[in-house]
């Protein structure tokens, strides 16, 4: 469920059920051509579908972080975003990217979903296992 699909008056009623935030990271640098940027967004959509579709109603998808600054600055910013989302009441933060080179240690995030080093998306079973483990931890 995208954050924009939730009406203001519904939020308090739904809040106990929407305990997981999906925070997409596009991982672009700004040096991409329009064609490359389009491909980045399509790849991100494909990996996000692995979570958004089966877990609709429990997971809220926030707007993507499209552009990365220097890695250490971006990691600090991402950590800060995750902290603020937890302060908003999300129990779990799942970071997701379609890029194979975007991986950071973010203690405030509960799970990173990424393709493997060859660019293959994780299987439905693998994602299901990781999310169930997260929710039962």
TrEMBL record:
**InterPro entries according to UniProt:** DUF2487
Task: Please name the Pfam families in this protein's record.
Answer: DUF2487 (PF10673)
Name of this protein: DUF2487 domain-containing protein
Origin species: Paenibacillus montaniterrae
């Amino acid at each position: 469920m995208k954050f924009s699909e939730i009406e203001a008056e519904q939020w308090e009623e739904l809040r106990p059920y929407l305990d997981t935030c999906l925070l997409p990271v596009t991982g672009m640098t700004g040096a991409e051509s329009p064609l490359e940027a389009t491909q980045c967004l399509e790849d991100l959509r494909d990996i996000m579908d692995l979570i958004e579709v089966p877990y609709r109603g429990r997971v809220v998808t926030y707007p993507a972080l499209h552009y990365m600054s220097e890695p250490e600055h971006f990691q600090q910013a991402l950590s800060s975003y995750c902290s603020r989302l937890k302060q908003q009441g999300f129990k779990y933060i799942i970071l997701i990217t379609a890029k194979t080179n975007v991986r950071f240690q973010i203690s405030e995030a509960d799970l990173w979903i990424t393709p493997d080093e060859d660019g293959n998306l994780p299987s439905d079973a693998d994602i299901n296992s990781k999310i169930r483990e997260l929710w039962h931890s």
